[in-house]
Specification:
A hairpin with a 6-residue loop joins strand 2 and strand 3. By secondary structure, this protein is an all-beta fold.
Length: about 45
């Protein structure tokens, strides 16, 4: 995904933050979302 696809037209970021850490974004994989800092994973 290109970097500009993470932002809306008004410049706000559209990525989901980690509910455990709160300060990092979740990486989007094919079958899950994962936090690289604390290891939190949401399976789809």
């Amino acid at each position: 995904m290109a970097r500009h696809e993470y932002y809306s037209d008004d410049g706000q970021i559209e990525r989901e933050q980690c509910p455990r850490c709160g300060d990092t974004f979740l990486a989007e994989h094919d079958d899950r979302k994962h936090c690289g800092k604390c290891g939190y994973t949401e399976w789809e």
